[in-house]
Amino acid sequence: MDKRILILEDDFYLADDEKALLEKAGATVVGPFGRSCREEDLFASGELDAAVVDINLGAGPSFDLARALADRRVPFVFVTGYDEAVIPGDLSHAVRLEKPLRERQLVATMARLVAGQTEANG
């Protein structure tokens, strides 16, 4: 998976695990970014092929960064403990994986996502 993948996750250990898994699969990881991430941070290092997005980056559910990714047509997966009912309708197309993640689940989902196959909900 020779792709640039952004990680938005405020839990250091989970972000580190996600980064290691994706790098092991051949991805170039951008971030991880956590609580202090701003929209301009997302694209400062260049184009992105996909992203892993936690719904709660410390202050409750927030969808601003996910919308910024969607506006730029960057496919992403929500990795969250929240129920899918929390996700607004305009972002309901996004794949949702529940925490805790299984190693193969994240890598396989991201591989499908960057290949343009987004129908595989988690």
Automatic annotation (TrEMBL):
Gene3D superfamilies, from UniProt? 3.40.50.2300
Which residue intervals define the domain Response regulatory in the entry? 4-114
4-aspartylphosphate is found on D54
Q: Name one GO biological process term.
A: phosphorelay signal transduction system
Keywords of this protein's UniProt record, alphabetized?
Phosphoprotein
Which domain of life does the UniProt lineage start with? Answer: Bacteria
Query: Under which name does UniProt file this protein?
Result: Response regulatory domain-containing protein
* Natural source organism: Sphingomonas desiccabilis
Tell me the classification of the organism that encodes this protein.
Bacteria, Pseudomonadati, Pseudomonadota, Alphaproteobacteria, Sphingomonadales
